[in-house]
Predict the structure.
Amino acid sequence: MTSRRPSPTIFFDQGDFDENGTFLVSEMFARTPKSVLAKNFDAPVEAFNDLPEKELYIFNGTPQPKDIQKQNITGSAGAIPVSHAYTYHWSQQKPYEVPGGSVKILDPTTFPIAAKFSAALVTVKPGAMREMHWHTSSDEWDYFLQGSGRATIYRAPDAGRTFDFTAGDVGYIPKADAHYVENTGTEDLIFLEVLQAPKFSDISVAQWLALTPKQTIKDHLNLPDSLLDKIPKEKTILKQGNRNMTALGQ
């Protein structure tokens, strides 16, 4: 199996956002008189003759130095403290391993500067699934980096739809809608689960039932004791499954 490097991804917290509303330095300079730029930067007007003719948003740049220290610039106030740092090395975070895959969590607990941003990098083994759950404080955006998956989204009181996803797809799940994400392929399913929330959290359907009086569940669902007695009281995050998906019932 060959590994894949995910392409750069940008997330915005407004659905109507587009590049036309972005503050671009190239456009700012293009819309400022060159005489003003010359005065502001104490430079001859000719120094600005090669400014781009139009704004630059996503474009080819020049190679960056391999030694990142060469790009560090520190002002007179000193370096930014860790609690206010604008970068977090998620690649160095040890994943939380569970049967069926692994997960890495990023939220203000580890990255304080992103006060309302939370995300999980989820790896689901073939046949396994991100357990049934819902979020109480945020919609969910999913970006699929590798593999193929399937999700059924339940919206109270009586709406349920199932969707298939492959690498490069984006999924959206409204707040409080119950759902899962199942690996339907033969390779690891890897996706980003993004929330606009001050902490990454969810409600596990299995844990919810495990902490509810058994008789109440039996009255609602007619489930046998043999099933209810095995439901874990702690979140499992991922659930293992049969790798031969054709053997699973629909």
